Amino acid sequence: MKLLIAIVNYRSAALTIDALRSLLPEVEPLQGDVHVVVVDNLSPDDSLVVLANTISENGWGAWCELRPLPRNGGFAYGNNQALPPSGPLPDYVLLLNPDTLVIPGAITTLLNFADVHPKAGIIGSRVEDPAPPAGDSTVQTSAFNFPSIPAELEATARFGPITRLLSRWMIAPPQQPMPHRCQWVVGACMLIRRQVFEQIGRMDEHYFMYYEEVDFCLRVARAGWEIWTVPTARVIHLVGQSSGVTDTKRPARRLPAYWFESRQLYFTKNHGLIYAVLADMAWLCGQSLHRVLRLVRGRPSTDPPHMMRDFLRHMCKRGGAR
Fold first, then answer.
1. What is the mean pLDDT of residues 183-190?
2. In contact, 40 and 47? CB cutoff 8 Å
3. What span, in angstroms and rounded, lies between the C-alpha atoms of 83 and 97?
4. Are 233 and 126 in contact (CB under 8 A)?
5. ∠ at Cα 59 (53, 61), nearest 5°?
6. Helix count (H) and strand count (E) of the chain?
7. What predicted TM-score, i.e. pTM, was given to this entire model?
8. Pair 225, 119: CB distance under 8 Å
9. Cα separation of 35 and 30, whole Å?
């Protein structure tokens, strides 16, 4: 098989159905070379029934499989379970969020790029907001630099002079219109070559949600593979609709504990405890500076509620664990 598309559903059946419908123009030309697996992370609602009925009523069963899972193990777990448990993998695996709409031609563009760039282990797409009634859609950041100590300071300070000083490390650099190499791509649409899984294994299921794709891209890069983004492959991302955490169209919600735990795991696992503590210090310095500047300028906070308090609590929890 040429391509397996993995979609992880959790209480988002309507979004998943829209994503599947957007795949129809991509699936039909491949004629049997693509298989879609929708895994359900033990949704407590009627997702399984709704998805099963929709797949059956629309005759999608020839190319789409619904696979219920015994527990909600998170994003990495769900995607891993979409892969064959044994035997050979397809040539490529596409991780696709349920809150995405694939613009026709996007997947073919990614596959064509991968076929002529054999060193590209992971390839990401351009990710967009839905287009307003009049005007062009807004491009979301989808190609990033790896988190680091200077990047943590720049991202939390949000202060022009610091950004200019640390621009080479900033996690979310300005997006470029042409295909280019980057350090990691957003997991909402991520094409992965079969040989990558054969060399480094699957995603780390210790991450419940967030940072799992960053960790995976870092492992891929350390194994010698290139990571690319191809902006001509376009996907609409209804950001935060499936998780309810990062929806930019609504007031910021308090971050769940697993966001902080995933961040700590990423730094400690990949860079060691001392580096992780220094990254925490950089985060705190930048966040403190931002709060002071915001108060001086009389601007309201746009951060999630209790951000500093929650960060300190999880930081102290890790210190207590030592």
1. 97
2. yes
3. 15
4. yes
5. 80
6. 11, 12
7. 0.92
8. yes
9. 10
